[in-house]
Amino acid sequence: MCEYNQFGQALGVALPDWQPRPWPTRQVLQGSRCRLEPLTLAHASDLFAAHQLAPDARSWTWLLREPESNLAEFSAWVEQVATLADPIHFAVVDQQRGKAVGSLALMRINIAHGVVEVGHVHFSPLLSRTAMATEAHWLLMQYVFDTLGYRRYEWKCNSLNIPSARAARRLGFQYEGRFRQALVSKGHNRDTDWFSVIDGEWPELDNAMRNGWPPTILPPTANSAARWRVSVNGVFCAPAPL
Fold it and tell me: Which domains, ranges and CATH numbers included, belong to the chain?
């Protein structure tokens, strides 16, 4: 319930017991199809090989870095990011193969407000668009909400990145809006679309992920900007007018 001060001004919902949340740690998150392991140099060879299975470099288009041309360059990148406190990178390891097939990270970590973003998502053809990919995201969301007790889990992407926006919606994230001219990425303007899941939505979403997919919860509402308009040439445009 919203609280008001002596002037009749709305203050929002009171959180009298709120405390800063723990910082995420580099630990293994175990699932049935995959596990998330803190990214290390030991994953570099498998990850590089998995990405080489792609027929072209289109999965790199909206990443903030260019593809490495050889294993040595890729290993150098892994070594550079593996010990960072923010972002915290995880390798997605296929349980059956025992090999890393993708990676993702927790980033923009804000313990004071209990907010964190999932980013640097890069899945190889062995992982992309599979049940294992869904489980990888679920494992990280479960860790953030159930173990760490965060209030908000964010997803951001280039507004032209249709696959990322679709993935966010499929995973239950709600579209919040567009930050225009947020970045200059690879010499081009980038407008950034924001999505989120908040703690009050998580129990239903968690249940849906455990018991079947896709979820039927959290449908777009009449006043949300969750319906997209796509132009003839496939460019991701502004949300459709309501």
Answer: 23-216 (3.40.630.30)
Whether the predicted pLDDT of 219 surpasses 60? no
Determine what percent of the chain is predicted with pLDDT higher than 90.
Answer: 85
* Cα 74 to Cα 103: distance, rounded to the nearest angstrom: 13
Residue 103's contacts (CB-CB under 8 Å, 6 or more residues apart) are 39, 43, 47, 89, 90, 91, 92, 120, 121, 122
DSSP percent split of the chain into helix, strand, coil, nearest 5: 25, 35, 40
Residues 172-202 as b/e (b if ≥16 CB within 10 A, e otherwise) read bbbbbeeeeebeeeeeeebebbbbbbeeebb
Reply yes or no on whether the pLDDT at 224 is more than 70: no
